[in-house]
């Protein structure tokens, strides 16, 4: 099978999307898709088998990209732990995440723009060094 790019590895190596390992639970994704579709007035009763798989992969890629950008901010701050300030800085610094800007207040803190939603510290500790440690740059170099 010909790969379309870096992120098309969903069907590579003989693992199909339906039986392959999923980081996000497909049943929950399907439930969210059904619940979210009711906003337009028309309720969806059935969802094809491929839709949750594709949506799961899209979510995985989104989380991976946000984590990489946050890690770059962490390295620039000469730390090894990703803080919510790093996530907020990554959101503000990246045009791709403009739809999340309303979740980050003016000080760069993650939470609701009105100042609500800042209950406690939730930090991600990086245990392995599998991510590239690019410093002083906002562009990502794809790993081979």
From TrEMBL:
<feature type="domain" description="Transcription factor CBF/NF-Y/archaeal histone">
    <location>
        <begin position="24"/>
        <end position="91"/>
    </location>
</feature>
<dbReference type="InterPro" id="IPR009072">
    <property type="entry name" value="Histone-fold"/>
</dbReference>
<dbReference type="GO" id="GO:0000981">
    <property type="term" value="F:DNA-binding transcription factor activity, RNA polymerase II-specific"/>
</dbReference>
<dbReference type="GO" id="GO:0005634">
    <property type="term" value="C:nucleus"/>
</dbReference>
<dbReference type="GO" id="GO:0046982">
    <property type="term" value="F:protein heterodimerization activity"/>
</dbReference>
<dbReference type="Pfam" id="PF00808">
    <property type="entry name" value="CBFD_NFYB_HMF"/>
</dbReference>
<dbReference type="GO" id="GO:0000978">
    <property type="term" value="F:RNA polymerase II cis-regulatory region sequence-specific DNA binding"/>
</dbReference>
<protein>
    <recommendedName>
        <fullName>Transcription factor CBF/NF-Y/archaeal histone domain-containing protein</fullName>
    </recommendedName>
</protein>
<dbReference type="InterPro" id="IPR003958">
    <property type="entry name" value="CBFA_NFYB_domain"/>
</dbReference>
<dbReference type="InterPro" id="IPR050568">
    <property type="entry name" value="Transcr_DNA_Rep_Reg"/>
</dbReference>
<keyword id="KW-0539">Nucleus</keyword>
């Amino acid at each position: 099978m010909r790969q379309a790019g870096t992120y098309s590895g969903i069907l590579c190596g003989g693992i199909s999307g339906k039986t392959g390992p999923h980081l996000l639970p497909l049943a929950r994704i399907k439930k969210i898709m059904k619940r979210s579709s009711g906003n337009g007035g028309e309720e969806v009763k059935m969802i094809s088998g491929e839709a949750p798989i594709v949506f799961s992969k899209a979510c995985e890629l989104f989380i991976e990209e946000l984590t990489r950008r946050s890690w770059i901010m962490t390295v620039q701050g000469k730390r090894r732990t990703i803080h919510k300030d790093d996530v907020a800085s990554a959101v503000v610094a990246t045009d791709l995440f403009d739809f999340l800007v309303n979740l980050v207040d003016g000080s760069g803190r993650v939470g609701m723009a009105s100042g609500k939603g800042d209950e406690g510290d939730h930090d991600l500790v990086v245990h392995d060094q599998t991510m590239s440690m690019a410093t002083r740059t906002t562009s990502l170099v794809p790993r081979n």
